[in-house]
Amino acid sequence: MKVGVIMGGTSSEREVSIMTGQEMMAHLDVTRYEIVPIEINDKRELISKTAGIDVALLALHGQYGEDGTVQGTLDSLGIPYTGSGVLSSSVCMDKDMSKQLLRYAGLHTADWIMVNGVEELMTADVDALGYPVVVKPNAGGSSIGTRIVRTREQLEPAVAEALRWDRSVMIEQWIGGEEITCPVLDGKPLPVVGIKPNSEFFDYISKYVEGEAEEQVIVLPETLHKRVEAAALQCYKLLKCSVYARIDIIVQNGTPYILEVNTLPGLTKNSLLPRSAAAAGMSFGQLLDAIIEYSISERRSESKTNKE
């Protein structure tokens, strides 16, 4: 089977994507797959460079790679790809839209306000959220452009910085508590990973620099564990995820608050999903095998449904 590892892209997470792609290639079973590295910069390259592959193993992150665009292109080319489909990818990438759906379904998520420019801060009732707040690009990832804002005076520069990375910005109520993540593989929860960054939140450096965060599988009290798993699975199903996803959560006073749902979570050597899979008895290579197998099955199922 010829596996094209697609990495790079045009988003702010390009370097993370390349790290993910390199890590994937290092752990794919060369006795099972013919591995084809595919680094892309635009849609034209995606079309030309994927010719002849049997499946696209997506190592992309951020806009163009994680928002349904690449997925739609590969669908039109008839090339199976890993992870969620167009709709789920698009919805989960849009933090505002996904939070609205989560809130409507009764899941807990922090209150928020959306702005499209610093001038809108004149009328936005940010004070109602209470400080501190989290300012982040609506469609960004890896905490790029994200800041914790503790005073009104810090708000405008933080929004201006976030607008460098996206056209709309989320100003979100800060929820203090224990940060965890619950990966889901083929509709089943994997072990929960606890996150304790050295900085004030799980920022870019904490995510990708060795030793900047303590990330380990944890055992939650039984009742809380059931709540966390139930919330993660509800997110996965509600947002129509498939194959795999990672649901990031803050636990405050026994209540899981959903931060976001990642449809193409990082798979670098420091990433959370491989750590969780290892605790479930899966090596990195076995995790990739499962992702490829489940994805091909999912794409076939989607194709059959579309033809009926």
Q: Which descriptors apply to this entry?
A:
single chain; 308 residues; alpha+beta; Rossmann fold; D-amino Acid Aminotransferase, Chain A, domain 1; Dna Ligase, domain 1; six-stranded antiparallel sheet; four-stranded antiparallel sheet; 10 helices; 13 strands; 36% helix; globular
Question: How do the helices and strands line up, and which of them pair or pack?
Answer:
Elements: E1 2-8, H1 14-27, E2 34-40, H2 43-49, E3 55-58, H3 69-77, H4 86-93, H5 95-104, E4 112-115, E5 133-137, E6 147-149, H6 155-162, E7 169-173, E8 178-185, E9 188-189, E10 193-197, H7 204-208, E11 213-217, H8 222-238, E12 244-252, E13 255-262, H9 272-279, H10 284-307
Parallel strand pairs: 1-2, 1-3
Antiparallel strand pairs: 4-7, 5-6, 5-7, 8-9, 8-10, 8-12, 10-11, 12-13
Task: Please give a structural write-up.
With 308 residues, the protein is of the alpha+beta class. It folds into three domains: 2-82, Rossmann fold (3-Layer(aba) Sandwich); 91-108 and 176-279, D-amino Acid Aminotransferase, Chain A, domain 1; 112-173, ATP-grasp fold, A domain (Dna Ligase, domain 1), CATH 3.30.1490.20. The protein has ten helices and 13 strands. The strands form three sheets. Strands 8, 9, 10, 11, 12 and 13 form a six-stranded antiparallel sheet that branches. The relative contact order is 0.15. The model has no long low-confidence stretch (mean pLDDT 89).
